[in-house]
Amino acid sequence: MRAVIAEDSVLLRVGLVKVLEAVGYEVAAAVGDADALLTAIEEHRPQVAVIDVRMPPGFTDEGVRAALVIRRQWPEVAVLMLSQFVEERYAADLLSTNTSGVGYLLKQRVANVDDFVEALQRVADGGTALDPEVVAQLLLRKDIDPLRRLTPRERDVLGLMAEGRSNTAIAESLVVSDSAVAKHINSIFTKLDLPPADATHRRVLAVLRYLEVG
């Protein structure tokens, strides 16, 4: 699995390279700004890119804007964003284009190497990985009518879905059976007015409504 890293902090960049290489990734490039990132993506065509939200020269949204370019021009490249703080607008911008192969984590999560690697692999495999704190902040922008129909447990399930958890992982987190999770998810689909369709597609739509970008 080939990866490109874009992070302006030299220490964190070196650390990310070591972590990825230790678990079998080939780091094709490790750069410090958005322009170099786009050049590296075009040259190496990695399976996944790990990108800092804020990079030179302005340290505002350079990483997010670069990620949106990547999603548009090289949709096969999965993107995992790293941010020092919860910036829900940037997460929403990224998720509004495509929820397949995308993640948004706080940098503090990198300290837990196992969790970080698991999230990275999930994104590289085409899934979604959202930091629980990002999800919590996005929920502050809620009050979409259909969401009011959900029970507290259904909201818990949908929140874990938004983090990219599988049914089994949700069941383990909530200490319930897989069948109970499946029933909750079917109820969520019904209450959010999502008709029967491809299961993955319905999950994506449910998460988008939860994050208020759908």
From TrEMBL:
Q: Which GO terms describe its molecular function?
A: DNA binding
Q: Which UniProt keywords apply?
A: DNA-binding, Phosphoprotein, Transcription, Transcription regulation
Coiled-coil annotation: which residues? none
- Cross-referenced InterPro entries, in alphabetical order? CheY-like_superfamily, Sig_transdc_resp-reg_C-effctor, Sig_transdc_resp-reg_receiver, Tscrpt_reg_LuxR_C, WalR-like
In which domain of life is the source organism classified? Bacteria
Q: Does the keyword Oxidoreductase apply?
A: no
Annotated HTH luxR-type domain ranges read 143-214
Tell me which residues bear 4-aspartylphosphate: 52
Q: Name all Response regulatory domain ranges.
A: 2-122
The cross-references to Pfam families, in alphabetical order and at most eight, read: GerE, Response_reg
Name of the protein described by the UniProt record: DNA-binding NarL/FixJ family response regulator
